[in-house]
Write a structure and sequence with these properties.
heterodimer, A: alpha/beta, Rossmann fold, eight-stranded mixed beta sheet, globular, B: alpha/beta, 12 helices
Amino acid sequence: MAENTLLRVEDLKLYFRAGKGVVQAVDGVSFTMNPNEAVVIIGESGCGKSSFAKAILRLLPRNVEHYSGKIYLNGVELMEMEEEEYRQKVRWVKMSLVPQAAMNSLNPVLRVGDQVAEPMIVHHGFRKEDALNQAREMFKRVGVPVDFAERYAFELSGGMRQRVAIAMSLVTVPELIVLDEPTSALDLLTQANIMNLLKRIKQEMATSFILITHDIATSSELADRVVVMYAGQIVEVGDSRRFFNAPLHPYSAKLMASVPRLRATIEPEYITGQPPSLINPPTGCRFADRCPMRFEKCDQEPPTFEKEGRLVKCWLHE
Amino acid sequence: MTVEKQLNEATPAVFKKGKDREVLLSIRDLRVWFELRRFGFGHAGYVRAVDGVSLDLHRGETIAVVGESGCGKSSLMKAILGLHKPTEGEIIFDGKNINEVGQAGLNWYRSQVGYVQQDPYGALPPFMSIERILEEPLIINGVSSKQERRDRIMKALEEVKLTPQAEFLPKFPHQISGGQQQRIVIARAMILQPRLIVADEPVSMLDASVRVEILRLMSALQESHDLAVIYITHDLSTVRYFSERIFVMYAGQIIEKAEVDSLLAKQMHPYSEALLAATSDPDADNALTFKQVPPGEPPSLVKPPEGCRFHPRCPYIIEGVCDVKMPPEFEPVPSHYTLCWLHDPEQN
């Protein structure tokens, strides 16, 4: 394995039991990322992007039917690891999560400072006083006034709560932070502030980010690389410059065309039809039914082709 | 190409026909204040959610009200829908002051105004079928013939492109997708053939592609029914495609109003400028720079700052002016208004 790989995921699968059958939320996803890189995962709701985040961090709900694949972090395989070891050595030590609607996931009856300090006590055995000092350091870094540590979540604005959630994910100085829709419930100016903050953290702390979002315009604020998911699979991976200029997969192109733009006059378009059911996904290319470029070959599932360092799962780029 | 140049070259994407027609809705110096009480009694001040808003909406015109949460746009909307009683000021619809029309008049007014909610799933009662949801407003408004009700429901579903209709009628809200739910909300708002639609962030909960679909649908209905639309949003990038004029709200006041192209080309108020600067387009260059964001947060509406309400955050503050006196409305460019001392003709 290349030395500069931080995370390497191979053929990751995560299926859930549901009333009507088995939902193949993440279906054979492979990708790698480098240290100090920001990868954004974009896709519509239900494409499996949040499940992918859960699968990487092994934060699984009870109705898991099938969970397989390989995950290497700095060359260490994680799937074989016992849960207790994983909890002690990986989750929140090497990788942490800013969950969806993080600002509403804070504990309402604990002071926010104590919540940020907790991972240091649990994972690094800090004394409470030292952990609180560490938490205050983190507050400074994410732009929360230090005396807010004494407050409860309801005494803070949405933007401040989001910063606290980011501080909590940062306090153990992990190598990788997974952010699930970090700005979707925030106001415009607050969104811009949070994106500025993430950029600064990336520069100052050399952290890597996986940013999961459906907001493509905002994702371009942080992205080094873009991963597009559709119906439980990765359909395109590329560096952000070339991706935003000209996406390769027809789905990526359609997705980009649906983004309304402030500084251009292109009329946004929508994608006709609906994503397929993940209970019984189609056998060929999963986007074929909605694809304007469909041809005979699309009835078979395309492999992932490499094209000048970009990956695309589409027969057009064979 | 500079941003400004690109914006200048923008062509209007909407069908302009609203202005120069008669006024449908006129709001005069509206104030919606909520009283704060200490221990359940004893006056402790007011939350000035809407503080002196005036606007005219013409027949068949679409306007956008833009602002962040807490700026008073929802309170303004609720006052327009007749859900909040104004503390002061008048709301005049089709020549009638809706605070003086009495209950019968209010029922008539509500049949003239449709409401499209932000969260479609929350807006649809989970225990009612689609048919029942769409039938309810007709029953309440005295459409007694069952056949007529059925016909109007079928037509409404066809207009929001949920066909074949028979397939949707018996379904419950949880059985259809988010985009389809929002179509039902729109159909319900349209079923009494209103003249005004108030849409509160109608697409913010939807996926990008579905957003475009819903906005296009609303645009088509607006044209075919000659509807006036108040589009409330915080997403400036969709405004161009959907409205003729734009009103920017900050701390309970409208601080800038103009035709969309005029405002997108040049923002007269520093707050509008900050909002535009904070809006991203998908572009890899974004990752290379930091965004300029005014410091601080919007002020308390209980005790708003003296003078201009934006002055504590404003990069262009004129000491001794902005922090002392509330700016009146200036019109630096024809039909482009702003509450900002930078555009005081006597100062320049």
